[in-house]
Amino acid sequence: DTEVTQTPKHLVMGMTNKKSLKCEQHMGHRAMYWYKQKAKKPPELMFVYSYEKLSINESVPSRFSPECPNSSLLNLHLHALQPEDSALYLCASSQDTRAATPYTDTQYFGPGTRLTVL
Amino acid sequence: SQQGEEDPQALSIQEGENATMNCSYKTSINNLQWYRQNSGRGLVHLILIRSNEREKHSGRLRVTLDTSKKSSSLLITASRAADTASYFCATEGSASKIIFGSGTRLSIRP
């Protein structure tokens, strides 16, 4: 199974709502990522989990809260978002960010969650 | 700041023609990757070329890497309508994360 799944596909929420995005992979990957992508822009890294521990937080506002319950699951909890947070949120996974070689791992992406904040 | 910048930003060609996209980067790298993204979807890994490689092929894809010029190119031969997508180069940043270039939007005209 080489698939990364994300739910929901679409999400519309108000600025006072609390919602969560979910990501799952069963490839045995030990690194998982959250990216934010605006239209016609490249993905921007938000968080990296390595072996279920948060290893990178790209100065993301606290209204985004990641969680990695186990090696297959990654959540992104959303609270008090702003309209400018509307974007495509992509999850990805890779074998290991601490690979023995210096070469960077290939990342496998999910289809994304299209988030609209009203 | 982005590690990779891509050229052109947008490219429209006739089906059957070849498409070439270029990526320039700023600092030394261990490898460079190319990804494809269909509109509103996730990215799909196409090919990885290591810093000690100069050229790599995968099906209709040919990637070159010139570390002296800090540049890479992606050639898609005999383009098809299904090749319409955005293409991103990606290089490693600090702490083993990857940084995507600005992307090239490729349109294949039937």
Please describe what this structure looks like.
The complex is a heterodimer of chains A (118) and B (110). The model of chain A has no long low-confidence stretch (mean pLDDT 91). Chain A has no helices and eleven strands. In chain A, the strands form two sheets. In chain A, strands 2, 4, 5, 6, 9, 10 and 11 form a seven-stranded mixed β-sheet that branches. A four-stranded antiparallel β-sheet of chain A has the order 1-3-8-7, with no helix packed on it. By secondary structure, chain A is mainly beta. Chain A is globular, with a radius of gyration of 14 Å. Chain B has 110 residues and is mostly beta strands. Chain B is 0% helix and 58% strand. The N and C termini of chain B lie far apart (37 Å). Chain A binds chain B through residues 4, 6, 33, 40-43, 45, 48, 55-56, 88, 90, 92, 97-99, 102-112, 114, and chain B through 2, 30-31, 33, 35, 40-45, 48, 50, 88, 92, 95-103, 105.
Segments of chain A where pLDDT lies below 50 for 5+ residues? none
**Class by helix and strand content of chain B?**
mainly beta
Give the averaged pLDDT of chain B, no decimals: 92
Order of helices and strands of chain A: EEEEEEEEEEE
Distance between the termini of chain B: 37 Å
Radius of gyration of chain B: 13 Å
Main β-sheet description of chain A: 7 strands, mixed
Fraction in helix of chain A: under 10%
Kindly state the number of beta strands of chain B. 11
Biggest sheet overview of chain B: 6 strands, mixed
Q: How many β-strand runs of chain A?
A: 11
The class by helix and strand makeup of chain A works out as mainly beta
Overall, the morphology of chain A is globular
Radius of gyration computed on alpha carbons of chain A = 14 Å
Number of helices of chain A: 0
Report the portion of residues of chain A in β strands. over 45%
Summarize model confidence as the mean pLDDT of chain A.
Answer: 91
